[in-house]
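Cross-posting from the chemistry board since nobody answered there.

I work mostly on the small-molecule side, so proteins are not my area. We synthesized molybdenum atom and want a rough idea of how it might sit in this target. Sequence and SMILES are below. Is it possible to get a predicted 3D structure of the two together?
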Amino acid sequence: MTIKRGLHEFYAENPELADEILWGRKANKITRRGFVKGSGLAAMSAAVGAIIPFAHLMPGGLIPAAFAQSDDAFSIPGKSGLILLNDRPINAETPAHLLDHPVTPTSRLFVRNNGIPPSTWDIDPLEWKISIEGEACENPITITLGELQKRYKQHTLQLQIECGGNGRSEFNPPAKGNQWTTGAIGCPEWTGIRLRDILKDCGVSDNAVYVAYEAADMHLSGDPTKRPISRGVPVQKALEKESMIVWAMNGDPLPELHGFPVRMLCAGWPASVSGKWLTRILIRDRIHDGAKMNGQSYRVPCKPVAPGMSVADEDMCIIESMPVKSLITFPKSGIESSVTKLLQVRGHAWAGDNRVKKVHTSIDFGATWQKTKLKKAVNRLAWQHFTATMDFPEPGYYEIWVRATDDIGRAQPMLLPGWNPRGYLNNACHRIAVMITA
Ligand SMILES: Nc1nc2c(c(=O)[nH]1)N[C@H]1C(S)=C(S)[C@@H](COP(=O)(O)O)O[C@H]1N2
Ligand SMILES: [Mo]
């Protein structure tokens, strides 16, 4: 079950924190009498779509009624229909039927934050600085985003991003963390430069092992010496032509929640390697040891374990490519159709660094499978679309199951893959319910 928390509940508990998380860190700088001003106010104006003439009379912690009236569990500015899983920090996923577009609209992309995002909406993006350094960087540099955009060739690619914990809610015994169901995946179009163009310019020494990011978000404790997250990928992955530094999504500047003004993007791996609010790139001479690289974070047992077992840190291996997976995005689970009609079904499939070779559906709980029509990806590391036409033998309750197989012959497990302590990599078949009437 998805835990839905209301905006009201959130504000009732801690209005200042709610303001801070929803509107950015500076919203917390309220006047002594508790009124919202400054950048928090501007963000709020942007979200309600107008200036707020009596803002000076608006108490801090007040929920703009424009959002409070909605029945949605929570309205994050710029998002529509997402389900909130956690409010500190904000984590929200997208119901499967809202992921139907071939290219994921910005309003439908899940949000996963590990810390408190920086308030970047009022900065000059062109002046944002990124430094490239590290033990295996021959010529460390600091470059502004404006300069980077001028100096390197721009590319636009459609790339999937999926949280390593997507599907966690199904594991038993349960794993701690955001209880993602199926919605921590999306495949928008990103614009930026190839990471390798700038890395090569800075000089990657022969002893380079990993390329990592550091970012401008704040640890949840507020302790400036701690980082919420700093991860990376092996050099070979960083040098692939699809690994990017991006500043635009679907043709617009990155939204604040997704890393404005600039982020890293290494698709096909857990999205935790794609650092938002990018400030530093480190070319390391060892496996990166930043926040959430060690211990049990983004790691799974190197060898399968029985459900519920505790696994020593040294027996856990870093997650690399994500597994093969698929999602039915049309129809919405729970619909009714008639036995006299053919039902059109569609969705997407993806397979980490690999390609999806075939997608099958079943209406008899996996006893028999029918091949769907599968399209090629628009580019490597973008999801692929499938369609199927279904005929039901008689009225009643059915489930449609979907199962993808990648180009090295690995298929999705029907119910659950191997259990792991943190609940990563659940690529079980997606299934929806349909009621077939006479
Ligand atoms: N700086 C920074 N980058 C980050 C994170 C974060 O908390 N801080 N979360 C990571 C994780 S775990 C995921 S799943 C993706 C989510 O990207 P999105 O919020 O744009 O969908 O961002 C990654 N990059
Ligand atoms: Mo994630």
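Reply from a structural biologist on the board:
Welcome over. Reading the output above for you: DSSP finds seven helices and 26 strands in the chain. Helices lie at 7-13, 15-23, 38-48, 65-68, 145-151, 195-202, 235-238. Happy to explain the token format if needed.
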